[in-house]
Amino acid sequence: MQQAIVLTNGMLVSSNAKTCHGLLRGSERFKILAVIDEAFAGQDAGEVLDGKVRNIPVVASVAAYFAQEGAVQPDACIVGVALTGGRLPEDFRAALLEAAGRGCNLVNGLHTFLSDDPDFQQVAAAKGIELVDIRKPRSREVLQFWTGDIYSVKAPIVAVLGTDCALGKRTTTRWMMEALRAKGKSAEMIYTGQTGWLQGSPYGFVFDSTVNDFIGGELEKAVLNCAREANPDYILLEGQSSLRNPSGPCGSEYLLSANAKAVVLQHAPGREHFEGSDVAIGSIQKDIDLIRLYGSEVIAITLNGEELTAGELVAAQESLRKETGLPVIRPLEEGVGEAVAALEEWAAKQ
Questions:
Q1: Which of 210, 211, 242, 278 has the most beta carbons within 10 angstroms of its beta carbon?
Q2: Residues 326, 315 contacting (CB under 8 angstroms)
Q3: What is the pLDDT of residues 49-91, one digit of tens each?
Q4: Angle at 206 between CA 203 and CA 208, to 5 degrees
């Protein structure tokens, strides 16, 4: 496992720092030594995130990290944010160049590619470090078109979809995998974003850096590889965006190309508009009905409580239970046990 520092530059508590949040909650690829964020320096990153001490300090700068007595040399400095459009914020450049100059490989999940930038190329050559651009598109020669072999998979396939972007779909997927494993079941997660790769998931691909014609085939390939190599009891798919998000609709591939017949639907009842727009999200029933039209079934709803007080979130939970007749879960507050129970109950009927 590599050791790393994670750069968030003032965004640690923002949903834009979801890459960092995922790494703080667990990774098999990187051990996180510190988070670089001047706004929260001196605090424990886990406490800042969700009140849980994780013994990962927040320090003000890359230079401040290395100035600490006994500072461990990181293998990597990771860009810990994911922004609309995937552009690298200008204020990240100096910190990344500082880290590179101190011998850290740079790991970047944005659409701005460090390996194409002369400044980063120069320091990488001088220091012998790697510039890892996770979202850099792969050659079409290595991509697979959909074959139909997905229908040979016997394990239940469940997609964790959402009603919008940046709701916690990956976190819910990972927690469900961990909860199933804790019950003695074998479960695997198919990652579809850069954070899933950073967390060390062995099966998946980066959805939004893949040529559109091959997305269905790459999703199918990831599920097939998982089924053949790991032979799990359950295969969980990390969703992206949402079926109805006009800025980047996504989800039908999971239901059709990956043949996911069960869906856990993540929703933020306090969010009125699709992220970055003034287009209303509307009723969650629209997503439930649309998923049903694709031939799949929502088996549980998981909630993101942003913009709501604890009491308002509980009220929304009860209202959605009555409205939909489905299990409605608050993962951060309650865990995902009820969602796992709903999945096991659904699978037993198939």
A1: 242
A2: no
A3: 988 999 999 999 999 999 998 899 999 999 999 877 678 888 8
A4: 150
